[in-house]
């Protein structure tokens, strides 16, 4: 299966590395507005994940990754991409732009068969797909969204609680590492809080996951709220949930259901740990959510629990797995 990536930032690069871990996907083209030498540099060196174990070089308009030649271009506009003759099966848009339907349709005009957006879409009619929860939607449209990292952590857990216990109300708060959408020093940004220095502040802000969860869980539309604190860590995030359940339950039953689901419907997507971990312990974890068993607490009908996730590695791994699942 021929894959192309547009946008070689944090997510794009992690997707590249995940594709090289699989045997059935062939990365044939990458585009980003940065020059090829910079792209090679960023693929090789990484402040979060360390030196790449892939062999990275470049020649003319090709990135050479562990012996494979990949067409590299630097266009800002999709329609300028020379992808028509490359027979691309799946294009992954990780540029942080081009989130509207007309822009994403431009990939289809280049002959791309499937387009995956690495963020929530700016369109109501682009399906948002979460592995395990609604992956049947993968085949329903040539353009789909892989949701967001926080949605990927939240959705499986809400789904498990909704099916097993019923949800009267749920709130989630993600304590999220900073991302490239924030400023290093106080500087102009349309979101005043994201305008403030990311390395020294706990920054209360919104998360796109709130609206996405309301959209993909219509029954929870008026029952769920969510927010985010951006904190001065480079990677690794944790979501705290407060969930008011309909049925009476116990800590043991809740733990048992979460465990069973992590071994079945959500195998390879969520897991549980009884270790006393901290956020750096999930760096490079392929999971969408790693539930901290010791955090599970039931008071009356209110459950509190937390789940860690590597917002880059977990999300990118699930995105590549979604493509692999979609082949069958
Ligand atoms: N970082 C995360 O934790 C995370 C997790 C899940 C989803 N996402 C989403 O993935 C997207 C990318 O996020 P990121 O953190 O990788 O950002 P990033 O800033 O690290 O990467 C974006 C890349 O796109 C390139 N780019 C910008 N405009 C372009 C254009 N017109 N054409 C081609 N390339 C262009 C940039 O040069 C950069 O290399 C965003 O929509 C973000 O919301 C991010």
Please, could you describe this protein's structure?
The protein is an alpha/beta fold and 328 residues long. The chain has 2 domains: 2-118, NAD(P)-binding Rossmann-like Domain (Rossmann fold); 149-311, Dihydrodipicolinate Reductase, domain 2 (2-Layer Sandwich), CATH 3.30.360.10. It has 7 helices and 15 strands. The strands form 2 sheets. The protein has an 8-stranded mixed sheet with strand order 3-4-5-2-1-6-7-8, with helices on both faces. Strands 10-11-9-12-15-14-13 form a 7-stranded mixed sheet, covered by helices on one side. Strand 14 and strand 15 form a beta hairpin. The longest helix is centred in the middle third of the chain and has 17 residues, at 149-165. The two termini are 12 Å apart. 41% of the residues are buried. Bound molecules: nicotinamide-adenine-dinucleotide.
Helices and strands in order:
Elements: E1 2-6, H1 10-20, E2 26-31, H2 36-44, E3 56-59, E4 62-65, E5 68-73, E6 90-93, H3 101-109, E7 114-117, E8 143-145, H4 149-165, E9 167-177, E10 203-205, H5 208-216, E11 224-231, E12 237-245, H6 251-262, E13 270-273, E14 289-299, E15 302-309, H7 313-326
Parallel strand pairs: 1-2, 1-6, 2-5, 6-7, 7-8, 9-11, 13-14
Antiparallel strand pairs: 3-4, 4-5, 9-12, 10-11, 12-15, 14-15
Helix pairs in contact: 1-7, 4-5
Bound molecules: nicotinamide-adenine-dinucleotide (NAD).
Keywords:
2 domains, Dihydrodipicolinate Reductase, domain 2, 328 residues, binds nicotinamide-adenine-dinucleotide, 25% helix, alpha/beta
């Amino acid at each position: 299966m021929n894959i192309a990536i547009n946008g070689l930032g944090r997510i794009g690069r992690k997707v590249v590395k995940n594709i090289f871990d699989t045997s059935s996907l062939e990365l044939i083209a990458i585009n980003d507005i940065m020059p090829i030498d910079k792209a090679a540099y960023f693929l090789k060196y990484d402040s979060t994940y360390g030196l790449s174990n892939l062999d990275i070089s470049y020649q003319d308009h090709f990135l050479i990754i562990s012996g494979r030649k990949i067409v590299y271009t630097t266009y800002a506009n999709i329609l300028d991409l020379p992808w028509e003759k490359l027979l691309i099966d799946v294009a992954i848009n990780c540029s942080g732009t081009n989130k509207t339907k007309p822009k994403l349709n431009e990939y289809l005009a280049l002959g791309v068969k499937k387009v995956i957006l690495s963020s929530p879409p700016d369109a109501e009619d682009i399906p948002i797909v979460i592995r395990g929860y609604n992956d049947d939607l993968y085949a329903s449209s040539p353009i789909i969204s892989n949701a967001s990292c926080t949605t990927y952590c939240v959705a499986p857990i809400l789904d498990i609680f909704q099916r097993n216990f019923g949800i009267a109300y749920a709130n989630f708060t993600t304590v999220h590492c900073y991302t490239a959408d924030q400023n290093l020093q106080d500087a102009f940004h349309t979101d005043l809080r994201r305008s403030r220095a990311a390395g020294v502040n706990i920054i209360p802000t919104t998360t796109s996951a709130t609206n996405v969860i309301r959209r993909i869980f219509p029954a929870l539309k008026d029952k769920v709220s969510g927010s985010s604190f951006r904190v001065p860590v480079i990677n690794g995030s944790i979501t705290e949930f407060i969930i008011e359940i309909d049925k009476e339950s116990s800590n043991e039953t809740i733990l048992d259901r979460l465990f069973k689901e992590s071994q079945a419907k959500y195998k390879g997507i969520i897991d549980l740990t009884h270790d006393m971990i901290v956020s750096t312990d999930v760096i490079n974890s392929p999971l969408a959510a790693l539930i901290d068993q010791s955090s599970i607490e039931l008071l009356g009908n209110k459950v509190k629990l937390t789940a860690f996730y590597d917002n880059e590695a977990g999300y990118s791994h699930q995105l590549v797995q979604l493509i692999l699942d979609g082949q069958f």
